[in-house]
Amino acid sequence: MEQRLAEGEGAARTAPRWLAPGETLAILPGTFVVTVGAAGCGKTTFVQRHFPPEMVVSSDAIRHELYGDAAEQGGQARVWGRVYYRVRRRLAQGLTTVLDSTAATPRARQRALRVARQHGAPLLFLVFQMPLSVCLARNRARLDPTRSVPVPDVAVIQQFEQVSRFLASAQPRDEVQIAVLTPEAVDTVRVGLLAAARPEPRAP
Predict the structure, then answer these.
(1) CB of 31 within 8 A of CB of 25?
(2) Cβ–Cβ under 8 Å, residues 40 and 135
(3) Region 57-71: what's the mean pLDDT?
(4) Which of 176, 183, 184 is nearest to 15 (CA)?
(5) Residue 14 belongs to what H/E stretch?
(6) Is pLDDT above 60 for 181?
(7) How many angstroms separate the CA atoms of 52 and 75, rounded?
(8) What are the residue ranges spanned by the domains of the chain?
(9) Which DSSP string corresponds to 33-44?
(10) pLDDT digits (tens, 9 = 90+) for 49-59
(11) Which residue among 43, 84, 102, 134 has its CA within the 20 to 30 Å range from the CA of 157?
(12) What CATH number has the domain spanning 17-193?
């Protein structure tokens, strides 16, 4: 029977690890990194700062690509079909892949877990635990030429509550890593992208 990644449902989970200021987060080759956090928490800014663009699959960027507006919430099946087509294509090659999305719901994280398992990829949920007031203020003030309107406050609040429940209920398990970024650490944490081991040269 398929395991479900959902609070209170016997999901495959691991205890969250809060990253310290200045710490280096080491990421193994071929890891599937999924950002988790409410709109306005700084996910995209962090991803753009620490990962090369070819590594990143952004749900907002694909909404803009398909519909000319990252705020468009219609056509979800088409959007996520394209998102995971690109994710799967990279993971199938053993490439580290970053999914820049909110992943606030158990269903979203369950899908990420299923895809990681199918490709034998390590899964890292990178959770942004910022104060709700900060998320709301940043979201309202965000100047994003790809969006016609900011995310509604009610949606930001819902995402924040969902992420808080996820962190509160996570239990130890090796299959999934959860790393948490706080306001104290987010600007100084470093990302270490580990290189794949090279094959040993053959003896002559």
Answers:
(1) no
(2) yes
(3) 94
(4) 176
(5) none
(6) yes
(7) 28
(8) 17-193
(9) EEEE--TTSSHH
(10) 999 999 999 99
(11) 84
(12) 3.40.50.300
